[in-house]
Each structure stands twice: as structure tokens, then as C-alpha cells.
Amino acid sequence: MNDIYHSLKKKNLVFYWTSLVLLVVLVLYPLLGGILMSFVLSATGAEVDWSRFERQDLASIRMVQVVGQILLLGLPVLFLVGLQTGEKKLFSKKNLEFLGYGHRVSGAAVLLAVTGVLLLQPFIFILIESTGYFLSYMGEFGESILDNQERLQRFLMFLAGADSFSEFLTVVFVVAVIPALCEEMFFRGYIQKNYMYSLSPAGGILLTGLVFGLFHMSPANLLPLTVMGWFIGYVYYKTQSLVVPIVVHFCNNFLSLVILQLQQENPDVSGESFIMDETIGWIILFVTLSLLLFTLVMRSFNRLFTVVRY
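Request: output the structure for the sequence above.
Response:
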């Protein structure tokens, strides 16, 4: 009975500590990120005007994105894990194994997980466009959310702009590589792992996925981002490896980057006009087929692993 009491006490402590860390990061990340952005732009002589950015500001803005993710997500996770494991060396084997870097997985698991996230994209697309459609009928509240999303979309298209292949590789590093590494270390390697221990695997996945959606500060895309967080969280739970979620996250961001590039080349083609025209029937059929294939792929994925107990 005493062992059960101490076990519950430890789980409660882990839950409250993890929630505190999460709250601090959710508050400080946008605040410190904004301060860092203003400082760098001022230091480089760029105009600090959040309503518009100039082409010459791109290098500074991209640098802020990378530095912000590393300083505010990546490195703090290593310190937090060290506090939990008692290991002072940040990159020690014990700390990396806590995050999920030491667990080996087969190439088949990685391939199936990546295939799964690709097959999930049509459903995510429907969620994004449907959310925008319904928000347009919600008066001033909906319009304010859509206006915010439009500003965010313009910023992302500005950030992802590339005039050469070498610049495109830089954009991939900023938009896909760094977020995949830092965000997965924080959300799956630390937050979800602690929540799965203190709550349950399902509770940890669901709660972390929701927070992952909130973290991106895009109310219009909260639902699709949360769904993506749930999928990546499930992959982490099954594989117990952080490498697989990182690869999946990278592939998702890379695909989004490619779509942004296509939108820049074809500005007259929008998802909303596409989903509301006469092709709607074909779209529904395509999404249904992709979800059926997704189910089959995930069944094969599940067969590779035994149940993990926390």
C-alpha cells in the first residue's frame, strides 16, 4: 500500500512539474521570440514593422527562427531531462535514451510511419478548408481568426520564398529540419513521455497533441495541427524512438513547404475554390480512399510492435 502511495505521489509530481514547464514555455516562447526578432532586426538595421517585411530582412528572420527554436526548445529540454535523470552531462547516453534516441527501430517502421503521414494529408486538407469555411459564417469572431490566419500565411510564404536551389535548401533547414528536431525533443521526448507516465499513454498522447496544436498559435488550424500531433504522438508511443517522429515531422513540414512554393507560383489557385467547385465529389472519394489506405498502413505498422506499458 505504501509503494502504491509513493508511486501515485511521484506521478502527480511529474504531472504538475511537466504542466508548469509547458505553461512557462507557451508563455515565454512567443514573448522571447518577439523580443529576439526585434533585437536582431534592429541590430541589422532592418525595419521593425510586423505588418510587412522586406526581402533584405529574410536572412535575419530565418536566423531568429533557428536560434529561437534551439535556445527556447532544444537546449532547455536537455537541461530539464538532466534534472529528471540526475545526469549532468547534457548529451549523455542516459539523457538521450530518456528522450528516445537510443531505441532502435526497423526501416519498415519508419517507412510505414512516413507513408501514414502522407496518406493523412488529404484529410488534413479537408479539415483546414472546412474550418475556414465555417469560420467565414461566424461573424466578426470568425473573420478575426481568418484575418490572423491570412497574415500568418503571408509571413510563411515570405519566409519560404526561395530564388535558387541553395536558398531552398536553407528554407528546408529553417522550416523543416530545425522544427522537427527541437519540437519533437520538447513535445514528444519530454512532455508526452512525462504525461504518458503520470496519466496514461492515451491521456499523454491526447493532451500533448492538443498543446502541440496550441503552440503554433494558429486558431484556424488548431484542429488539423492537433490531429497531426496525435498521429506523431502515437508513432512515438509505439516505436519508443524519437527518430521516427522527427522523420515524420520533417516530412510533414517539407510537404507543407512544397505546397507553399506551388501556391507562390500559382497564386490564383486556392484550396477554398478547389474544394467548393464541381470536383467536390472526387475530393470526397479521394479523401475516403486515402483514409482507407491509411488504416491499412497503420495496421501493418501496429503489427511491428508489442504493447508498451508505463
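The first helix runs from residue 2 to 43.
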